[in-house]
Specification:
The structure is a homotrimer. Chain A has about 325 residues and is an alpha/beta fold. Chain A is about 40% helix and about 15% strand. In chain A, helix 2 links the parallel strand 2 and strand 3.
Chain lengths: ~325, ~325, ~325
């Protein structure tokens, strides 16, 4: 694996998920694989779970992991070609990326969208410029439009639940991604990415529900059933993924913010005792009620803890590809 | 040891201090103990010595140590139960702590008091919520009202000095904790904690001196002699611990800030050539004069360097308890 | 080697450069040297390449490397003797440095000049106070007036190019340090330091060119030819080092900021196909044009990646000196 930016970088999602679950059983089994290898993790935006789980995964593979918080440590990068850098940016990605590529074997990058200019965000300029100028494997720790480590984690977690439930092994599970209210305009990354991965995985009936005006980009949702009536969508769900996102068409806005969209115990009653998922951080009693988060249907802690195994599976694929290349 | 939050978590202070001093003699002797174990250190507030000494101690036990500066890396945690999170906090400790507990074997937390609401600070809500929801061993790196790693260090350092002074082995040493002026209202943590530990240790005559209105919480000071005349208190002291704190009763204020309370060479003359202690950082020529800090009575560098061995003793107890549990 | 602050700390620059290039061939060859040794890196100012390359170098020597961003992690140090610390500084270097010296085997420090008071900056108070009070080997990660790890890197890179070019082995190369425009007043460190090292190395014809009023401190430039006509200076150059600096005499100002001083392809034509160097970060199309940075004459990525080997050579010298001392 040369890069991990989107579901398109994975040829066999089930095989990658199996690899992750094998690490969950035996975290240190490939500790020799990353010996004398280094990953540099560049954070252009804050991160807790993604940062910590990647660090843990790297160490369990025997790699050195170096964290660099670009903004809080005082750097402003330029990404536009031919920029005349007389403003606030102090270094161009064209100059920074090739140097970082000499210091590290794998480069991991987190960069949020500005939510101002849709075209710019959806071009994924930042991470693409890193890929272009680094020339070493690049791992997304969440980019402007996608969050693939989260989505791989989500698939792993869903598969774990399916394996524990004989009924779900026999029939296709129904997975519902539901929009939830929030107090700030959030990126579409997690929702886009979840849609992309569930569609690529192809082993479930997939429904997306949201208020009108919150359509996601069709390039990711195509294949899913879109329903605007949340109650109808939740009916017979086996998994409910709760997530807020801002508008895609009239970009980065909050339109309707109807608190009635918050998932509650009453709504969960329409489902088939659905497992409830969320990528965290979650705004309690805004996106999801306490009763759900603290109840037995929530698999959110399990999901978040699976972040380690997703990262470890992806890093191990990258390391194995390096070894093969070198032979 | 399941948690290290207060002196009450330690059954035998002398034994723990001996353990620390054994590490001082041979820092790497238990390097195998922490193999494949990880400590996560969460800083809700800044730290230098505590952070660095814990990191050093963990590494010397063969552990991986991961630092996360919660605020500067962009996170605001919610600690109140049933909060409707439509404000500034982005994640509830109920959701964060169980996930961190999956990433780490030990969780270490630093959190300062707000100094606005005494009841809230003295409830130790933050660290208690972490303990409640993490379910793994929790280590205090200083909390709202106590600083146990500092106090264990203080006892270790006092015992070292006693062992070097035959006279002090024969009679009970006199330890004086003296209030000192400062420019800002500071927490009572170090003073509370020192009082709690010296009382629990029980091997010294313990005096606390401060201007009226600076009474500390009796739950910690009970057993000590309180004297408001500093000169009288310092008389015949073997150890003088210098520390500022803000008021406890009319909470978090600066009342009297009389520069006459600064410890000077002249005052030290009343003591039995007392060793002078301070937890650092110290405001020179405000809390303590240059002549004392740079003089031969100061054991402050020795004291601060002992932070490593205190942390290593506590971590080793936690690691040993894990191994026993697993058997 | 007890300290690495300036070219004066190095007895044989060529030998040190050879050591660095040996590490470039075999990065892990001395991994045992730093076993159970620790370096603490204190950043009073931001850093990317210096921080990362030092971290990489330390790890390749088997050392533990601990990073501490003093300002962003909430500390303000006092450096003035006899200060009455009732202001903003929270800790004196007299108290902090000896403690850090107990936690680490080597202390590395980065501290920028204030550019307000020349005498103060050129006294190198900050790093000298660390050296004075730490008592362990101190490594400069850039100080108020010098950047020795950068300059050692520069010499290494120049020597690599010479070895690849038989003509340059036979005759003395011509090295030109040229001032370049910038948008902010920058320190003189890199320019001072490069001048100091090239002069100490002594194996080249060395020219410095800058607009009038941008004279550097003679203590560093003495031995170089100073030319105010950039075209004349560039003539027949084998290496062109591009760098901005603020004024030295009327200290810390921007006088002339003539964009005509930006190095372009047209100007490069006057040289002998000179290799172009810059320490990074570089303001594209302000200091250097895209055509140069992206062209075949630029050795800037090679130069920046050599930072690792320079740091590794210096750290290995310090570690070897410790081993000898201990015997």
């Amino acid at each position: 694996m040369r890069q991990f930016i989107s579901a398109a970088d994975v040829s066999d999602i089930n095989a990658l998920a199996d690899k992750a679950l094998a690490f969950k059983k035996d975290p240190w089994k490939s500790e020799a694989l990353g010996h004398h290898k280094r990953i540099g993790c560049l954070f252009l935006n804050p991160s807790m779970r993604t940062r910590l789980s990647t660090q843990v995964a790297a160490r369990q593979l025997g790699m050195e992991c170096i964290i660099f918080n670009i903004t809080s440590e005082g750097w402003a990068l330029e990404f536009e070609d031919e920029a005349i850098m007389s403003g606030n940016t102090v270094e161009h990605v064209r100059d920074a990326a090739p140097v970082l590529a000499r210091y590290f074997d794998i480069l991991a990058i987190r960069t949020f969208p500005g939510l101002k200019n849709r075209e710019e965000d959806y071009s994924e300029l930042y991470i693409n410029q890193f890929i272009r100028f680094a020339g070493i494997p690049v791992l997304s720790l969440e980019s402007s439009t996608l969050h693939p480590l989260q989505s791989l984690t989500d698939i792993i977690t869903i598969r774990e639940c399916i394996h524990e439930n004989p009924e779900l092994v026999r029939r296709r599970p129904r997975i519902v991604l539901t929009w939830a209210p929030h107090v700030k305009p959030l990126p579409q990354c997690v929702a886009n990415s979840f849609a992309q991965w569930v569609n690529a995985w192809g082993a479930a009936d997939f429904v997306i529900t949201h208020p009108e005006d919150y359509e996601l980009d069709e390039q990711f949702t195509r294949g899913a059933t879109i329903i605007h009536d949340q109650d109808e969508a939740l009916k017979d769900a086996d998994f409910v993924y709760v997530k807020n996102w801002s508008t895609f068409r009239d970009y980065g806005k909050i339109y309707c913010n109807d608190p009635g969209w918050m998932l509650t115990g009453e709504k969960l009653a329409h489902t088939r005792q659905a497992k409830v998922m969320h990528c965290l951080p979650v705004r309690r009693n805004v996106e999801l009620s306490d009763e759900i988060l603290d109840g037995s249907n929530s698999i959110i802690t399990q999901q978040a803890s699976n972040r380690v195994w997703a990262a470890q599976a992806v890093l191990s694929e990258m390391l194995e590809a390096m070894t093969i290349t070198k032979r």
